[in-house]
Structure to design on (262 residues):
């Protein structure tokens, strides 16, 4: 299956970001992609205004999601990315959405909030409480994670044991000493230890690193990009997964119990 990674820098205006997402979708579909992965914060973002997260949040049936679904009409393409959704108490959920021309296919509320490196997402966000069901596209089973989740191997392992062959990780990975290396190491580790594909899609711009990449089941970065807006493509292969798992049967050889969410 051919997938696309659409890396861009979100602006404070959701209308502009929606237009960018639809443009990337049309370009990805024209190249034969069946899945387009977009970053975290595709609704609205402003590094100087963290409260924009609260003001810009929309319901899943709001204008951003319905506009994206409308923009996909006529395209044989599924799109994923993250938006902020009001939780009903003045805070928001960070929701990884999956949509197509037929509507909303699936959602995942980010489990691990980024209370690290002097940032506190929990000041404005409410964590999710469930591991999302897998999404199936062209016979491939896809697991959903978001950004900081990639530092927690239990979630990726749970998705792999549920059958995930590709794990999608939209992100707004903040710059800092060694942070690009952290990103690459974590994506590679999650792919290699679970012998599946992992696609990390980074928001770029003045605060975040971009650096989107797809890592294959043997830990090889098969495509990657730098810090600028980009649209890159990758073929993922069930044969590659099967051969890797036959040679490196870590999921069979493990001695620990299945991870559970507490």
């Amino acid at each position: 299956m051919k997938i696309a990674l659409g890396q861009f820098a979100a602006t404070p205006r959701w209308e502009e970001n929606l237009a960018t997402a639809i443009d990337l979708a049309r370009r990805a579909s024209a190249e034969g992609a069946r899945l387009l992965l977009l970053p975290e914060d595709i609704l609205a973002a402003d590094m100087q205004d963290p409260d924009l997260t609260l003001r810009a949040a929309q319901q899943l049936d709001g204008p951003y999601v319905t506009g994206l679904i409308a923009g996909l009409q006529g395209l044989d393409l599924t799109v994923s990315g993250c938006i902020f959704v009001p939780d009903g108490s003045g805070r928001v959920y960070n929701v990884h959405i999956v949509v197509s021309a037929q509507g909303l296919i699936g959602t995942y509320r980010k489990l691990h909030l980024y209370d690290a490196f002097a940032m506190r997402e929990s000041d404005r966000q409410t964590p999710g409480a469930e591991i999302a069901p897998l999404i199936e596209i062209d016979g491939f089973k896809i697991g959903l994670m978001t950004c900081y989740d990639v530092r927690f191997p239990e979630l990726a392992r749970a998705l792999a044991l549920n059958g995930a062959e590709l794990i999608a990780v939209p992100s707004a990975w903040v710059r800092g000493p060694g942070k690009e290396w952290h990103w690459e190491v974590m994506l590679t580790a999650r792919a290699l230890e679970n012998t599946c594909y992992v696609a990390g899609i980074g928001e770029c711009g003045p605060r975040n690193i971009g650096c989107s990449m797809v890592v294959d089941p043997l830990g090889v970065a098969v495509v990657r990009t730098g810090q600028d807006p980009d649209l890159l493509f990758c073929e993922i292969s069930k044969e590659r997964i099967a051969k890797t798992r036959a040679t490196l049967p870590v999921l069979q050889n493990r001695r620990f119990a299945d991870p559970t969410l507490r």
Q: What stands out?
A: Residues 192 and 218 are 5 Å apart (CA to CA). The domain at 2-253 is CATH 3.60.110.10 (Nitrilase/N-carbamoyl-D-aminoacid amidohydrolase).
